[in-house]
């Protein structure tokens, strides 16, 4: 059984390697995000040199607080029932795996729980994050069209945002309602939009905020800018769908190829339990298991590296 614990440790290390590869892939995105923050602070009028001279401890605390803030907005829901579902679904997944393990495979339960719990929460967080981004893109495109149409009919930008927040019931409309209320109360537009960008830290929303702040500070034709942004969003969406369509077969083939060895290993438990026990309990069989994990893990990392820009 010691080999079983060692196997789960190997799986954990492979998962950590995949996370590190993902972090390296998106490091340039965070660099651009810092540049966007500096530009927003310059629009606000705050000095970025004071922020650059902060101690390492303050910077780390600020980064951690911002990450917790973003995670909170991913898991937060409109009602208590949905919030409980989002928090407990990974726990139920781990419990189901544990029940299957106890009834059929009889592996040590503690390593499974220790490995699957953080992995399931991480995967669930990524799923919710992707879903939230997709919902935002749909709502944001609709909101730009609605606001641009209201401005064309003679409404002011603030009135157009207020109309959209009153006529729609999505999360973006609620955020626009918060913005209009804070602006009506006399809060600084720069600070209000900066706080809103922390809720939706997406590049589309960033361009929208910069266009609004530049229009407030120096004037300009807001309707034309919003029209160009709307056309840009439509073209980006079409390009992304085309890219996903062209790479769908390759991505699906890689997933199926990686899952086949594990599916056959599970099937072996019911077809030939003697060979299954040989693979997990006998040192000679462990070599086959280590080869399976190593080859699949290495192949997954190679595919992730090749598709890092897709």
Automatic annotation (TrEMBL):
Pfam families: T2SSF
Subcellular localization, as worded in the UniProt entry: Cell membrane
GO annotations of cellular component type: plasma membrane
Keyword line: Cell membrane, Membrane, Transmembrane, Transmembrane helix
PANTHER family, per database record: INTEGRAL MEMBRANE PROTEIN-RELATED, PILUS ASSEMBLE PROTEIN
Organism, scientific name: Rosenbergiella nectarea
Membrane topology field: Multi-pass membrane protein
InterPro entries named among the record's database cross-references: T2SS_GspF_dom (IPR018076)
Signal peptide bounds: none
Residue ranges occupied by any Type II secretion system protein GspF domain in the UniProt entry: 148-267
Transmembrane segment boundaries: 6-23, 87-104, 110-128, 252-268, 288-307
Protein name: Tight adherence protein B
């Amino acid at each position: 059984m010691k080999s079983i614990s060692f196997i789960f440790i190997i799986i954990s290390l492979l998962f950590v390697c995949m996370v590190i590869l993902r972090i390296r892939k998106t490091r340039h995105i965070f660099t651009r995000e810092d540049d966007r923050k500096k530009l927003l602070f310059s629009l606000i009028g705050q000095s970025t040199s004071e922020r650059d001279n902060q101690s390492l401890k303050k910077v780390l605390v600020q980064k951690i607080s911002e990450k917790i803030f973003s995670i909170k907005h991913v898991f937060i829901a409109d009602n208590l029932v949905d919030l409980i579902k989002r928090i407990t679904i990974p726990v139920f997944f781990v419990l189901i795996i544990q029940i299957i393990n106890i009834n059929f495979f009889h592996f040590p339960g503690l390593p499974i729980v220790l490995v699957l719990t953080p992995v399931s929460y991480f995967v669930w967080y990524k799923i919710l994050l992707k879903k939230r981004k997709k919902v935002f893109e749909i709502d944001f495109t609709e909101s730009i069209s609605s606001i641009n149409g209201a401005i064309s009919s003679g409404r002011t930008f603030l009135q157009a945002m207020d109309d959209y927040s009153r006529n729609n019931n999505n999360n973006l409309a609620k955020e626009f309602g918060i913005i209009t209320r804070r602006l009506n109360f006399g809060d600084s537009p720069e600070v209000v939009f900066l706080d809103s960008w922390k809720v939706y830290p997406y590049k589309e929303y960033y361009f929208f905020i910069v266009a609004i702040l530049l229009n407030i500070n120096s004037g300009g034709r807001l309707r034309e800018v919003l029209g160009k942004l709307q056309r840009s969003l439509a073209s980006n969406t079409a390009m992304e769908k085309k890219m996903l369509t062209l790479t769908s077969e390759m991505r699906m083939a890689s997933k199926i190829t990686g899952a086949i060895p594990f599916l056959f290993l599970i099937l072996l438990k019911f077809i030939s339990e003697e060979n299954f026990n040989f693979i997990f309990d006998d040192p000679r069989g462990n070599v086959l298991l280590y080869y399976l994990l190593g080859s699949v893990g290495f192949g997954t990392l190679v595919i992730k590296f090749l598709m890092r820009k897709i």
